[in-house]
């Protein structure tokens, strides 16, 4: 499936360029974190790579067919979309799309409900869950299919510390199952805890791609230096 290669990727809105041109290569493995000030294009970049917004120029290519790549990647939005069904049925749904038997799908759903500490809520309607519970359920629903690539938009925005810890634990566990992660976050502390690589965006431009260790020790751009220290960029 890998590498994922974006070449001269440009996305516009009302004839105004909001992202690009972007050139990057994402290799298999690890957590790639997209950082940047508000409005820099983090969400747009993720959506463009995933294929849910139209490119005006350029291309995004995988080493496998587009159909196969779509089936092997998942996207979790900042405001998770819940099916109007129970927690259990939300977890079962993506497995049924992949033609998994009902018995096996139920078994896996119960297993993942336990992983996210929601076994006592499996019959609760998902739309009535708390914000933190919805985030955990959305992540589990994405990971239950063992995707090769997972896109996450601000996975723990406005969540309490305990929920953030649980989400980060799930992300680290997913790496061991073979999932490569690309996520945006506003939380520099989270980026330091999770990231293998950092992509820094400003005003729709990709200013740098560095290993997390290099980025936090010696960022390539002046904007990144200001961002890390909490100054206005």
Assign a percent range to the helix content.
25-40%
**What is the typical, i.e. mean, pLDDT?**
94
Beta content comes to 15-25%
Question: How many strands, what sense, and barrel or not for the largest sheet?
Answer: 6 strands, mixed
Task: Tell the overall outline.
Answer: globular
Number of helices: 9
Helix-and-strand structural type: alpha/beta
The low-pLDDT segments are none
Note the gap between the termini. Answer: 36 Å
Cα radius of gyration in angstroms: 18 Å
Description:
The chain has helices at residues 42-50, 66-71, 87-97, 102-115, 131-143, 161-176, 188-194, 212-217, 222-228, and strands at 4-13, 16-26, 31-35, 57-61, 73-76, 149-153, 180-184, 197-202, 205-211. A six-stranded mixed β-sheet has the order 5-6-7-3-8-9, with helices on both faces. The protein starts with a strand and ends in a 5-residue tail after the last helix. It has 233 residues and is of the alpha/beta class. It has nine helices and nine strands. A hairpin with a 2-residue loop joins β1 (4-13) and β2. It is globular, with a radius of gyration of 18 Å. α3 crosses α4 (102-115), α3 (87-97) runs parallel beside α5 and α5 (131-143) runs parallel beside α6.
């Amino acid at each position: 499936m890998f590498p994922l290669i974006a070449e001269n990727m440009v996305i516009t809105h009302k004839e105004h360029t909001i992202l690009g041109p972007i050139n990057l290569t994402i290799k298999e493995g690890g957590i790639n974190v997209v950082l940047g000030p508000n409005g820099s294009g983090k969400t747009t970049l993720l959506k463009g790579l995933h294929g849910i917004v139209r490119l005006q120029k350029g291309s995004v290519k995988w080493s496998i067919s587009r159909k196969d790549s779509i089936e092997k990647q998942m996207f979790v939005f900042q405001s998770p979309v819940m099916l109007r069904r129970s927690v259990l049925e939300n977890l079962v749904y993506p497995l049924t799309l992949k033609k998994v038997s009902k018995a096996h799908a139920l078994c896996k759903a119960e297993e993942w409900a336990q992983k996210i500490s929601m076994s006592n809520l499996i019959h609760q309607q998902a739309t009535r869950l708390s914000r933190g519970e919805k985030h955990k359920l959305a992540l589990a629903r994405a990971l239950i299919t063992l995707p090769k690539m997972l896109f996450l938009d601000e996975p723990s925005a406005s969540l309490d510390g305990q929920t953030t810890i649980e989400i980060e634990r799930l992300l680290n566990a997913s790496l061991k199952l073979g999932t490569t992660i690309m996520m945006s976050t506003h939380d520099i502390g989270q980026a330091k805890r999770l990231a293998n690589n950092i992509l820094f965006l400003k005003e729709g431009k990709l200013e740098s791609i560095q290993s997390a260790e290099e980025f936090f020790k010696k960022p390539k751009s002046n904007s990144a230096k200001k961002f890390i220290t909490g100054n206005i960029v």
